[in-house]
Amino acid sequence: MLIRTQDSGFIHSDRSDITPRAVYEQRRRFLLQGLAAGALGAAPGAFAQSAGYTPAGKLTALPSTRSAVAGAVTMEKITAYKDASTYNNFYEFGTDKADPARNAGTLRTKPWKVEVTGLVAKPKTFDIEELLKLSAQEERVYRLRCVEGWSMVIPWIGYSLSELLKRVDPTSAAKYVEFVTLADKATMPFVGSRVLDWPYTEGLRLDEAMHPLTLLSFGMYGEVLPNQNGAPVRLVVPWKYGFKSAKSIVKIVLTDKEPGTAWNKAAKNEYGFYSNVNPEVDHPRWSQATERRIGEDGLFAKKRKTLMFNGYEAQVGQLYAGMDLKKFY
Amino acid sequence: MAVLTQRPRVNALESLLRQKAAKPLVFVLCLLPFAWLIYAAFNDLLGANPAEALIRSTGDWTLRMLCMVLAVTPLRQWINTPSLARFRRMLGLFVFFYAVLHLLGYAWLDMGFELDELARDIAKRPFILVGFLAFVLLTALAVTSPKRILKAMGARRWQMLHRSIYLIAGLALLHFFWMRAGKNNFNEVLVYAAIIATLLLARTWKRFAGRSKQKNA
After folding, report:
1. If you count residue pairs, one on A and one on B, with CB atoms under 8 Å apart, how many are there?
2. pTM of the model
3. Of A55, A146, A199, B215, whose CA is between 20 and 30 Å from A32?
């Protein structure tokens, strides 16, 4: 019988599937050399370059140590950097998934400040440099499950959001955390489009925000975040659908009321406040029971089964004990 | 004025359409998107999610072909190119061809060809149901497209059935609209809706104009 403890609760595939860090870094070097030599075929390289997309190995390195947080390092095969940085939902830069990589070059990530305020004893505005040094940077390999039915495995760099929240000392009245992201018409071409209410806002319950798996992320694949992935600082909440993980955060507000969230405001019946990955609660227009792992399975491979809480049930299940997750979707 | 009256009766497009090679050429042109998708699929040019790209672009091409087939009659009248009519059935069959690819893509790449899953998905989700209905109707038009079936059915009944292309267009638009509704992103839907609405209005306007002309005569 297979026994899983709370600590090994993530479901992982064969160990043979693991891509060691050295190998994926080597693959990146190979890709870069290929691009430089024009050996990999003109089309993808030309696309990547004309799109202003920055290949791996070009951004500032962000050193980190492997996280010791329970469930924080899945052994699954890591998604190619090219896929993770060119297939994005970041509506401030366009609604097509190729748009952010093409358009996000205009985003100015320096200087950058994050205001942490609301029901806290010590409100403070942090410079990004200060945030980067606030706690030790850890590498965490998380599954990312998008509400649209696709998934990736991404090595993020950052530290638990709780490290930041502890510094501002939430008062006993604080129950929720609201995240406000940048909405700069000058650099974000789709701010002002009617797709969503800008700025994009997201929210978590305080206990969700304090959970060690909730990551304040500054990098991925050994480097700082590419703009299209939410530079310079974003959230990663691995047991929730991807859109809960707000990008390019400028403000964090602790409140006593459930904050409104961008997608809930745009389509209430489709996107709830919690948005936990749940194969049993379908999106009104498609099933959530399965997902397509980007770049891994062949075109004709069957989609994989979606796991409850994206496979993080052992770590986060207790947060929702007794809750009707059909009602609080 | 003299130039106007001396304008040749057969315009350049019309004479082009009358060429023997015109039909095979249009056939090949209509196959180009399909050929490109095959090429792109084998050369990793479809982005990070090739399955999604294939399903979406076959859907797009179904709509584009539908716009083209609906454009045949109005264009024929506006720019005086009667020979366009010769291409209508072929274009109609290409609507069906891309719709088959679209459905096949969804059934295979999205649903893994699990028939019970498919049936459940179609029954459960209005936007898929609407698309599926459009496909069923389109199938009826495709199988009744040979001339001998037209003869067997009788022109009136055949035409009545084939007028359901308007209904198909409406269902296809609704399918696309619903699919985009979650993201409030209707730009493309509006473009197709505008094209289809213009083509339908052109037809009804022509019909009314034709009738009042008859009355006046």
Report:
1. 58
2. 0.82
3. A146
